[in-house]
Known about the structure:
Blueprint: H1 3-15, H2 20-37, H3 41-45, H4 55-67, H5 69-85
Amino acid sequence: MDVSLAQSVASAVGQGALDAVGARALEALLGMIRHRFRRDEEALSTLDDAVTDPAPLIASLDRYIDSDPAFADDLRDWLKEAANRGAAPTTQLVHSNQVSGTVHGSVIQGQNIKGRFTFRGLMGRGD
């Protein structure tokens, strides 16, 4: 599962274009996504609400990325090219976390952790 790719793409869609170059790049991205989602009305509808609620778009993208390596490669290529032109907001990922079921303890999410990182028990004893 390549959730970070889905999040980066959803972020680009949700944040929109910042300039004329970004607008053209965003239209190319949306065209690619619409083409891939063309037979899936539910996935297509997630594009409409990406600005206010990116989680459904991320889930749809993730499903297609997992099932279609060529689509995943195309999205990665778009992100690289857009970043090189300064048209992709790839440094700010949109995160949407959902925890379901019974959780006994804490839920922790981390990204880009550098250096030493440890977990300690409730009493701080490192157990």
